Amino acid sequence: MSIQTSATTLANGVKMPWLGLGVYQAEKGDEVKNAVLTALQTGYRSIDTASFYDNEESVGEAIQESGVPRNELFITTKLWNNEHGFDEALEAFERSRKKLGVDVVDLYLIHWPVPGMFKETWGALEKLYKDGKVRAIGVSNFTDQHLEELLKTAEITPMVNQVEFHPRLFQKALLEYCQNHDIQLEGWRPLGKGDLLEHDAVKEIADKHGKTPAQVLVRWALQHNVVSIPKSVTAERIRSNAEVFDFELDTKDMDTINGMNENARYGMHPDEFDYASTTK
Predict the structure, then answer these.
(1) What is the pLDDT of residue 129?
(2) What is the pLDDT of residue 94?
(3) Beta-bridge partner residues of 16
(4) Where are the domains of the chain?
(5) Is 119 exposed, middle or buried (0-12, 13-18, 19+ CB in 10 A)?
(6) List of residues 6+ apart from 95 with CB closer than 8 A
(7) CATH class for the region spanning 7-191+224-232
(8) Distance of CA 129 to the CA centre of its chain
(9) Residue 25: what pLDDT?
(10) Which of 50, 133, 141, 220 is most buried, taking the most CB atoms under 10 A from its CB?
(11) 1 pLDDT more than 80
(12) Active-site residues: which are they?
C-alpha cells in the first residue's frame, strides 16, 4: 500500500484517498502552487481547498501544471457560510469549479452548518450530484445532532463529514455515528498546532517506530479509519507526512494516544461559531 493506491470507498462507490494535502491558510500564488506541486510529485492524489481559503485558482493552476491525469486526482472544495441557500449554493459551486479549472469536482462540502440554512443548501448539493457535476457530496464541521437534523429531510446521506480530529479531540462518539451511517469521517488539523508534535507520549512512540511525531499522528487517524489532510507548505514536511504506509501502531500505541483526549479544540465548536459575522 502507498499514498498513491491507498483509498477508502465512499457509500456511493467512489474511491477517496486516505491521505490528502490541506491548503488552509496557504497563500494563493506561488506558496500554494508549490505546495500542491510538491504533493502531487510525492504521490498525493487528494487536495482539499475551499472558497473561503481564497486559493482555489492557484490550486487549479498547480493541477494543470502537474501533468497528473485528472482521473487520478481527488479534488475537494467547500462552500462558505455566505454562500448558503439553494440558488446561492449552485452559483458558489460554479465559481469554485471555474477557479479550479475542472469540469467535475470530486467532493463538494458544506463548510459549516449555518443554522436554519444548511438543509436548503443540502438540496442544492443533491442536485449537483444528480446532475453529475460532483462525484460525491458531504458536510464539514457537523456534529451528530446536525447530521440527525439533516437526515430528516435529505434524499441523499452525506458521504463525508470533515471535522477537527486529533488526539486531543478524539471524537469517538461522532466517529461511531458516522460509521454506523456509512459516512466517511475526515479529520482536519490532525497534527494540532505543533504542540502535539512535542507531546512526550507521541515522541516516545515515534522513537519506537523510527518515525516522526507527525507520521505517528497521521497514522493514528488512519488506523481509526479517518481520512487525514495534514496542511503544510514546506516541501520536506509534505513528503515526510506521506511516509505513513510502511508501519503500523500496535494496540498499546493506539490506547496511549487515545488516552490523550481532552475534548480540546483548536478551532471553534460548531454550536459556538459566530455565524452572524460570516453570513453577511
Answers:
(1) 98
(2) 98
(3) 8
(4) 7-191+224-232
(5) middle
(6) 51
(7) alpha beta
(8) 19
(9) 87
(10) 220
(11) no
(12) 53
